[in-house]
Amino acid sequence: MMKGWIGYILRVNLTDKTYKKEAFSEEFAKTWVGGRGFAAKFLYDELKPGIDPLGPENKLVVALGPISGIPAPNTGKCVVAAKSPLTGFYGDGNLGTKVSDQLRKAGYDAMIVEGKADKPTMLYIEDDKVEFLSAEEMWGKGTYFANDWIYGKYGKNVGVLNIGQGGENMVRYAVIRSLEGRAGGRPGIGAVMGSKLLKAIVVKGTKPIPQADPAAMKALGFGDLKEVHLMDKKSGWSIQSTNGVLAWCNEVAGLPVQNCRKTSHPDAWKIDGERLNNARVATYGCPSCTMKCGITIHDKEKHESELDYENVALLGSNLNIFDLDQVGSLNYLCDEYGLDTMSAGCTLSFYADAIAQGATTGDFKFGDAERAKELLGLAARREGKVGNLLAEGSLRMAKEIGHNSEAYALQVKGLEVAAYNCKFIPGQALSFGVAPIGAHHREAWIITFELKLSTRESYGPEKAAKVIELQRIRGGMFELMVACRFPWIELGWKLDNYPKYFNLVTGLDWKLDDMWKVADRVYSLIKLNYIREFPAATRKGDYPPAVWFDPANADTEGPIAGKHLEEDKYDGLLQHYYDQRGYDKRGIPTKATLDGLGLSSEGADAEKYAKLT
After folding, report:
1. Which residues span the domain enclosing 142?
2. Where are the beta strands (DSSP E) in 90-243?
């Protein structure tokens, strides 16, 4: 019997209300590990290129890893994936949720949802039973209502995934929500649920998760949870949590301000980590977490709003809003509607910028928090011309508006950038450019390496090497196993701990290098998915926003006055990345690379769409 993996996926068809349990082999498990690996492989194999991401042919994948649901530091995560409505190719995200353990206790390592329901539906999964229930009482309501309704009916120990009005109305950056402030699936995975009329998934499991050495894993896992908690208390990281980085970004000219037209602001202190901690009214976290990062405040309307750096910077400073209560209100609305805070912030900032540049007309200006709140509602409901436009995301907006506005749409491959202004941070700009699903900071957060070592001006191969190293760890191992990166990133929890968990659960004897190879395999497969959907794509698809290359957009004062990314040097840095990855000049894995990763058949398939050398 396989250990570490249950060995089954749950396949659900909403169209004909059927479901079945499908086995997978140990070889498949070792090849793809779990989480992102499973999701990328399922979607590559089962989706035909060119299908509508918002059509019934798309599939929603919920995937877990071999340590999901096992008590150990920060293992309460799951991966959600589909063909992205925002980018047009593979998209995914992770979120903290009790689905991480409940789905595995129900007897599955993943589930694939197909087809489309005939009316608003909720899936209820309890061990071997799946029910297709009406969700009409929740339809049209926000995620907080949905969570409370579900908890009231089934208790708070069930695993929940749900969407708000943004997902129902197929906003292209709608996310999936769970628990208090947990959300995932930035490239519009919530919109895929909405397109299927699937309001929520509820999971309850009672079976044991098979482990090679459960006693040893239990002792190690609980002991390490306590150790991580002590490390957090000693470091004080949770006092400001992720928003502790805001003041630093402002100091080093890396803060997004005014649609990244500026890199710092004298009022940034008003929304920094110290102010956030002072306003704290509650703290939330994911399952199996002892370093909870969800600092919650009362927003302008007195709702509880859970904030972190990404949403404070992109709904705050990037919109020239420096009132923490108002930032909290914008964040609360995103969570209630089920909208990605990063894409929402960048889409609003692009709209304000396009108006300011004279590319379009409108009544929204930087700093107008009240109008920003109204616009989020319009977008979530796809109400009117403006609401429909905002619901499309910044790239599609720019294509509609024209007047060269695409140059200052803050996105890569359609996915809006995370909250780091890379006007003059080449390595972090590269990490956004080559992130496999679009500009996500999850993949390779190189900014501290780049600035602390005083290598800001370098476009050398060492930065490409660092991006690859971090991709293997952050977008690779942690997304495969599936676990949160924060103990390692913020507290220095050693990476060697994770193969220990993996081996105790599976009975294997893997090292970190084994994880890196699987990570490379998954990154290459996602790249093949991209080129299959966009066979005419060029290396320009791996470029960051054009505005960062614009001399006219350079700072006029401060530590990077007069400086900006240089396109020819960036292109050289990109080539370093391709060379080290074993990709050709278009950024496509070569046949030799694919053969070495065990992707010969997938490579042969991709040759039908683009010539591989």
Report:
1. 8-204
2. 90-96, 110-114, 121-126, 129-134, 159-162, 176-178, 182-184, 198-204
Total tally of structural domains belonging to the chain: 1
pLDDT at 491 over 70: yes
Which residue in this structure is represented by tokens 């037209």?
Answer: 261
Task: Please name the amino acid found at residue 407.
Answer: A
Q: Which CATH number goes with the domain that contains 79? A: 3.60.9.10
Q: What percentage of residues in the chain have a pLDDT greater than 70?
A: 99
The answer to whether residue 520 is domain-embedded is no
Look at strands 18-23 and 60-63 and give their pairing.
unpaired
pLDDT range class, residue 181, cuts 50, 70, 90 = confident
Q: Does any domain span residue 84?
A: yes
* Type of residue at 51: I
Q: Would residue 83 count as lying in a domain?
A: yes
d(CA 162, CA 347) in angstroms, rounded, equals: 23
Instruction: Give pLDDT tens digits for 515-574.
Output: 999 999 999 999 999 999 999 888 999 999 999 999 999 999 999 999 999 999 999 999
> Within a domain: residue 175?
yes
In 3D space, the residue among 592, 575, 542 whose CA is nearest the CA of residue 603 turns out to be 592
Q: Which positions ≥6 away from 207 have C-beta within 8 Å? A: 105, 106, 107, 127
* Residue 613 confidence (pLDDT) above 70: no
**Coil, strand or helix at 22:** strand
Pick from 542, 504, 509, 540: nearest CA to 526: 542
Residues in the chain: 613
